[in-house]
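In the laboratory, one determines a bound structure by crystallizing the protein with its ligand and collecting diffraction data. In a computational setting the workflow is compressed into a single prediction: the sequence and the ligand go in, and a structural description comes out. We illustrate the idea with 2-oxoglutaric acid.
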Amino acid sequence: MIKIPSSVKETLSKPYLLTKEQIQFYQQNRFIKLKQVFDEPTITFFNDAISQRVSLMNKENTPIEQRTTYGKAFLQLFNLWKEDELVKEFVFSKRLAQIASDLMNTSGVRIYHDQALFKEGGGGITPWHADQYYWPLETDKTVTAWIPLQATPLELGPLEFSAGSHQIVEGRDLEIGDESERLIQQKLKVTNFNHVIEAFDLGEVSFHSGWVFHRAGANTTNQMRKVMTVIYMDKDMVLKNPENKNQINDWNTWCPGAKIGEVIDTPLNPVI
Ligand SMILES: O=C(O)CCC(=O)C(=O)O
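The predicted complex, in structure-token form:
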């Protein structure tokens, strides 16, 4: 069995100190990109581990041109931490969880779930959307760590943000697809929110909250854009009455057994 090198283990738990300005930036814009969250050996090690797990879990075999816009955006595999002890160490990284908690100003965070999002060579755009439309969660204290497993230039389709757009309510109720891309883009055009489209260095990680609008460009290369994500919520997050079929599905899938009006404290949602 492959073991995680001790220096990589240390990196996963080493604190990453945020400045007051960085926390303020996140609070205002509801996203932040942080450089050097992980070093090269850590990314290389988990690129291998996560890629292997994705290969084992992936069941998509429809040719890309025959898929929907959502299907063209990425291969999407969930809760790798349940399947793989190595990947679990990464998803349960105290360094990442501490950043998530500090940005949201909570006393701790729980895992909502994790996802690998592998945009294939020739893969399409990820349409504009806000994640929390899918989540039966009472407050906006939610954040996704988006962790590229390689340096990610614009050609690979890095994540893009509409800075501060969590203030817009219109468009929140749209599923990811052609309509969300068109309507949200139209809406954002007539606002002053900055559309941030930047490459990611190796080891750079972004954090975005549940209601901020974001998208990604197409992957115009013939190389996979490999990304791991971890979705955190406030450790005191309460389950709300689901408002749509996606939220019912999320309840059954990511926090089965949780009760409406109570803190979500199931075996799938450990405090990190
Ligand atoms: O990786 C992508 O293309 C999209 C990611 C995303 O929308 C998310 O992590 O919330």
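The chain has a mean pLDDT of 97. Keep in mind that any predicted model is a hypothesis to be tested, not a measurement.
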